[in-house]
Amino acid sequence: MSLKNNVFIISTFGLVLGLGSCTDLEEKFQGDLTANQIGTTTSANTAALLTGVYNSVREPFQNNSQLNALCEMTTDAMMGPTRGPDWDDNGTWRQLHQHRWDGNHIRIINTFNNMSGGVFAATDMLRFNPTPQQAAEARFIRAFCMFWLLDLYDQVPYREPGESVIQAAKVRKGLDALNYIISEVTTIQAALPDGPAGLANKDAARVFLMKLYLNKGAYANRATPTFAAEDMNKVISLADEIINSNKYQFTANYYDNFAPNNTTIGKENIWTQENVGGVSPNANLRNRWVTFLHPNQNPNGNNGWAMLPTFYDKYEATDKRLGTAYKSPGGLANPGNRINTGFLIGQQYNLTTDAPLKDRPGNNLIFSKDVKIIETGSNLELPGIRPIKYPIDYANDGSRLVDNDYVYFRLSDVLLMKAEAILRGGTATNTGTYGNSALSLVNAIRTHTSRGASALTSVNLDILLDERGRELYIENWRRQDLIRFGKFLQPFYEKNYTSDPKYLLFPIPIQQMAVNENYVQNAGY
């Protein structure tokens, strides 16, 4: 069997075997995954295996129906409306937005399995004598998947390298899992490369540790988080290390960070998953525009999810993050200079001829702000603002293997986390050109020409939460932010009630409960 096939096995079988299972078919696959198949360990082999580790996490992060759906559709930012017979999917999307899911929810299951697969793929790679840097990168990916399992489910499956996959995975929970992840990232940081952004790197470790310390109080008690000054000062210190590196700067256009050529022009990006157009394994980053666009737009879309009007209204009218006529390499002519990136609202146009578009029944294709979670009637294709965060890669859209690198960490998030840590009791510092207060940090982002928003006169936690939403929309942070700020359970658009506290966590999938006695189902499920 070729090395290429072994990489595929390690990265793919991890998706289904990371937790332990009891079917004959899966046991056969487990038995096939042996060191003998890899052959003599060489630097080329371990490099290919590390590529397999990176590839193993493309699907849960880049496909917007997994982590993105769980972290954004469950919040005040986005929902997946049912449009007549379209987008019903047995209530899958409505259940997420209205906090009515259970342990059989397919998106909860897929996210759990694929994140656990990333843990498995990285752990398995470590038994093939990687170099210190290769081991550090694999352990970083593993820790990041563990972080999301902790964040979503509060339980993290794990094995030691070489440990039999026939035995059920052990499980860390809560602060035990958090402390392990912090220890891992701290230990491996020095062995990570300095860059580029497409690799797990030293600055990515710093941002990761900021996330861990900032959320520590929430992981200890999601219902009523508390924040220790010691942890907040660690957040501030890590932010200052990144700022003092002078490696990152605001881009000329906010959306450059997400563009098809963001490998070179995304100057704010600290850690990304590099995609090479027409080459990289398909992880459905293309869904970041296809899900939202109408079938009569180019490229033709699925007319699906929408941003909530109450979220849209958080922006000033002049805020450039609302949208732009973005010029992508190989993009359409757009003679009318129509907004094609950001929030699509109002009449939509053919971006080649500038002719107004119509929907399939013949109505003018006018995306309206207001949208119901169940749409009916002759204009059901029209309601809802459509967010296009990643400028469309027209050059590679047909192959579905797009060039836009997926963005994990950015400079603006570092500044916003530092501002939050100051507001939560950390000691302010004056680092770089961003000032020494939460207000100056926030305004450094807002007033940059790439954003074009007005300077705030004051900032508190509520205002900061809004700014995190405006800056980081649909980047997977909204659910986590709302929990940390104590607002996740509150009523919001098309969910007019306070949710049961059990929804602060997702359930362990029923199938995993059946095969691994080390899991304890989260309360209320």
TrEMBL record:
PROSITE patterns in the record: PROKAR_LIPOPROTEIN
Pfam families: SusD_RagB
InterPro entries assigned to the protein according to its UniProt record, in alphabetical order: SusD_RagB_dom, TPR-like_helical_dom_sf
GO cellular component: cell outer membrane
Compartments it resides in: Cell outer membrane
Domain RagB/SusD stretches: 241-525
Keywords: Cell outer membrane, Membrane, Signal
Domain of life: Bacteria
Protein name (database record): SusD family protein
Annotated organism of origin: Spirosoma endophyticum
